[in-house]
Known about the structure:
The protein has 12 helices and 14 strands. The protein is an alpha/beta fold and 358 residues long. The strands form 3 sheets. Strands 3-2-1-4-5-6 form a 6-stranded parallel sheet, with helices on both faces. Strands 10-7-11-14-13-12 form a 6-stranded mixed sheet. It binds NADP nicotinamide-adenine-dinucleotide phosphate. Residues 17-23, 43-44, 46-47, 75, 88-91, 93-94, 111-112, 155, 185-186, 188-189, 333-334, 337-338 line the site of NADP nicotinamide-adenine-dinucleotide phosphate (NAP).
Amino acid sequence: MTAQxxxxxxxxxxxxxxxxxxxxxxxxxxxxxxxxxxxxxxASERSEGKPYAEAAKWxxxxxxxxxxxxxxxxxxxxxxxxxxxxxxxxxxVAGTAELAFAKAGKLxxxxxxxxRMEPDVPLVIPEVNASHxxxxxxxxxxxxxxxxxxxxxxxxxxxxxxALAPLEQEFGIDxxxxxxxxxxxxxxxxxxxxxxxxxxxxxxxxDEEPKFEKEMFKLLGRYxxxxxxxPSMKVxxxxxxxxxxxxxxxAIAASFHTRVTPAMAIDAIRAWKGDPSSRSLPSSPPQxxxxxxxxxxxxxxxxxxxxxxxxxxxxxVREDTILDxxxxxxxxxxxxxxxxxxxxxxxxxxxTGRLGSA
Length: 358
Ligand code: NAP
């Protein structure tokens, strides 16, 4: 099927964890989606039974009225009828809940860390590794279910993997050093206490560095015979929380299996279009990567909404004094790094015939 694909009618979908920061981003992105229709919203016992407008402390823009009137359901596959489920669940509950939904035959598009590194679970960024979706067949075969779990990556890993995919695919990364400046919305709502983060930098995000490092291998890996062949590289990441609302910025230095100059890196990034199946989906940005030669960019304030939050901006590509090159990448953590990434994954599944008919 091609990118011109149009379903005969929209698929009904449910949002789990619909009241949180990522859940609300799902609501905003899916409220007028051409292929999907929000049929149900679910969250914890704290929210269950309340109108969504009362349960969710709405963070940005105007809440879609029709969703505000919906009653929040429990996170229980027996109470949710939609066959496609977007999960923005807290990781403390996502493990059990997402498993239960997949066992009940639902297709779960998860933002949580719990299943990302399972060998039969795709960890997907459509432009980077669309072929990994084939792991669904192995998952269904081995787990004996008709449902599926498809994950998207940690928000920092998503930004870094998009920025680095052209270079990995063209030259092969040897060593990778990354230092993040991560927005507060990455910690959910209410997230980091204001007195901890205002006018401050916190050089620690619990569990973030190992997740970021491990996921980079899987994201940049190659699908082969029902598994992912990991790239042979060394990765080191340091993660920091900074007082920025949205947008994770990552300073990157890399060396490659062959000598790469900044001009070669710039040419590779400019020429890269990503997997053809990822183009022209409803949420595909005009460019997955926008390369800037302004030495003061990318900046979250100015660039975070590029491509409706789906474009990663890359700048300051230059020679490194230790490795080959260095550069800065920045992308929207709750859109490209979370809900928007899941929606794009669902669109790719639909356009490639993996959702069946609505
Ligand atoms: P959040 O604002 O804290 O929202 C968490 C959601 O989970 C809320 O809807 C909450 O419902 C629900 N929940 C909590 N405990 C529950 C339970 N026992 N049963 C059912 N629902 C429960 O967190 P977030 O930032 O949106 O993150 C959601 C997920 O996405 C997490 O796994 C996170 O790691 C991942 N993620 C976040 C980002 C980001 O940039 N924020 C990026 C990538 C991935 P109530 O409102 O009813 O409590």
